[in-house]
Amino acid sequence: MKSIHDPRYIEFIEQLILERWKRKITQEQLSISLGRPQSYVAKVENLDRRVDVVETRDWLSALGVAPSEFMDRIPWWSSGSSPPQK
């Protein structure tokens, strides 16, 4: 299974989208804050592009979300669950 299709990664991206929606920030507004094109945000949210830890930190900063609070909202992270068996 490609890591971009890992259920945990999908849940992670869904939480990023939810954080953007809760703040009523458009993809365009977020992309401007990130200094990236709107297509970058769309590709991440559509699971066409993977984000790394540095990009995630920038994304959360642009949304005004504390990284620790964000990660606590992701069930598999806060529960410390093991990766799925291959």
Radius of gyration: 13 Å
- CATH architectural arrangement: Orthogonal Bundle
The global form is globular
What share of residues are in beta strands?
under 5%
Biggest beta-sheet profile:
none
Give the mean pLDDT.
90
- Helix count from the secondary structure assignment: 6
Structure description:
The chain has 86 residues and is mostly helical. The protein has a single domain, classed as 434 Repressor (Amino-terminal Domain), CATH 1.10.260. 63% of the residues lie in helices and 0% in strands. It is built from 6 helices and no strands. Helix 2 crosses helix 3. The radius of gyration is 13 Å and the shape is globular. The relative contact order is 0.16. The model has no long low-confidence stretch (mean pLDDT 90).
Please specify the SSE layout and strand pairing.
Blueprint: H1 7-22, H2 27-34, H3 38-45, H4 53-63, H5 67-72, H6 75-79
GO molecular function: DNA binding
Protein name: Transcriptional regulator
What's a quick, concise take on this entry?
The chain has 86 residues and is mostly helical.
Record keyword descriptors for this entry.
single chain, mainly alpha, globular, Transcriptional regulator, Cro/C1-type_HTH, Lambda_DNA-bd_dom_sf, DNA binding
